[in-house]
Amino acid sequence: MQDDELGAAYNPETEGAQMTFSDRMSYGDYLGLSKILSAQKALSDAPDELLFIIQHQTSELWMKLMLHELHAARDAIANDLLPEAMKLLARVSRIMEQLNSAWDVLRTMTPSDYTRFRDALGQSSGFQSLQYRLIEYVLGNRNLSMTRPHAHDPDGSALLEAELEKPSLYQVVLEFARRQGFEVPVETTSVPASAPHLEVIEIRDLWQAVYQDPTSHWALYEVGEKLVDLEDYFRRWRFNHVTTVERVIGFKRGTGGTGGVSYLKRMLEVELFPELWHVRTVL
């Protein structure tokens, strides 16, 4: 083998790769990487603070995409575009899978690591995440008192108010069921939800009819399973959150003032689509 064949450095320019970007858009330009990669402002000298910041920032980016897909799915179902909605809801579940995986990285941080920078967080807490609150509101877990942590933020408050003026994703699905000939109690969809959805027996009966004859009600059967899949991942996310917090801080009070683990464990009891879960018992 000749020396030039063995030792010559590969030059992608010989194959036509663009190598100069003084007057062209580059990868970093398109993605705004100079802004993204300079947004990690540690407030202590603790090595693990960078892990903590990046884990939460990337989670917020995934939640931004999740909201984008949920809004599109809701619009698609409202317009009877079920195949499009199925693709979007499947993507949301995969996003939730990514959010779940992020906890595995954060759990490598020990209690000793976290205590080195916890005081620097002040009163900031994931409890205050605007995007997480918007996701909950889209999915129907609409606790109006949870708008208060965002009262200082006019733009954030406006987004929450705008969401509360829209039907939840589940309400849109139930309206679709009505258009498919099912009887749906008017009060469940007549106005945008302003409180968490609680089980309605007539809606459970609706899903029972769908699941007992999927072939005749395939569109509803498929959307029902997509909602169960989404909530399944959402429950895992909450469980992973509880486990991670308990592993790192035990039962200390959260930085945002909540009970920490005790508060998160109460969130495990929330059901977004109760009839879709309870129907399994009566089938």
Top keywords for this entry?
0% strand; Methane Monooxygenase Hydroxylase, Chain G, domain 1; single chain; 283 residues; mainly alpha; 13 helices; 59% helix
Summarize the SSE layout with pairings.
Elements lengths: L2 H5 L19 H5 L1 H4 L12 H30 L3 H25 L4 H5 L14 H10 L14 H11 L4 H11 L21 H12 L5 H32 L11 H7 L6 H9 L1
Helix pairs in contact: 4-5, 4-7, 4-9, 5-11, 7-8, 10-13, 11-12
Individual helix count:
13
Structural domain tally: 1
Radius of gyration: 23 Å
Number of strands: 0
Question: Could you give the order of the helices and strands?
Answer: HHHHHHHHHHHHH
Task: Give me a quick take on this structure.
The protein has 283 residues and is mainly alpha-helical.
Describe this structure in words.
It is a single chain. The chain has helices at residues 3-7, 27-31, 33-36, 49-78, 82-106, 111-115, 130-139, 154-164, 169-179, 201-212, 218-249, 261-267, 274-282. With 283 residues, the protein is mostly helical. The chain has one domain: Up-down Bundle (Methane Monooxygenase Hydroxylase, Chain G, domain 1), CATH 1.20.58.480. The model has no long low-confidence stretch (mean pLDDT 90).
